[in-house]
Amino acid sequence: MQQSEPQVADNPEASRFEITVDGALAGFADYRLNGPRISFTHTEIDPAFEGRGLGSTLVRAALDAARDAGLSVLPFCPFVKRYIERHPDYLDLVPADQRARFSLDGGEGSE
């Protein structure tokens, strides 16, 4: 049985991005919207779906959606923070004046 590609969708009623695999909810990334900022608070992948890279797929799609919406990102969720650390092309989403709060200096000011 062939599996379809994972699908990520915003569920604003639940304040979270959800990832589904073959129609089954595999995980979610909770957020809070506050004006032009989105705070990611918790990311969870169902244990039955772990080990497939779905967390990264979910967070990448959520960050891309934030970028497309012109939102700044506050990565309170450790998984989202680590994703940004590993993918510095998303660092610009975190306001410069908030990066130290999350230990995300991006090497700026270290010279």
Structure description:
The protein has 111 residues and is an alpha+beta fold. It contains 2 helices and 5 strands; from the N terminus they run ββββαβα. The chain has helices at residues 54-68, 78-86, and strands spanning 7-11, 16-21, 24-34, 37-45, 72-75. The protein has a 5-stranded mixed sheet with strand order 1-2-3-4-5. Strand 4 (37-45), helix 1 (54-68) and strand 5 (72-75) form a beta-alpha-beta unit. The model has no long low-confidence stretch (mean pLDDT 93).
Write the SSE topology.
Blueprint: E1 7-11, E2 16-21, E3 24-34, E4 37-45, H1 54-68, E5 72-75, H2 78-86
Parallel strand pairs: 4-5
Antiparallel strand pairs: 1-2, 2-3, 3-4
For the structure shown, list the relevant keywords.
111 residues; alpha+beta; five-stranded mixed β-sheet; 2 helices; 5 strands; 22% helix; globular
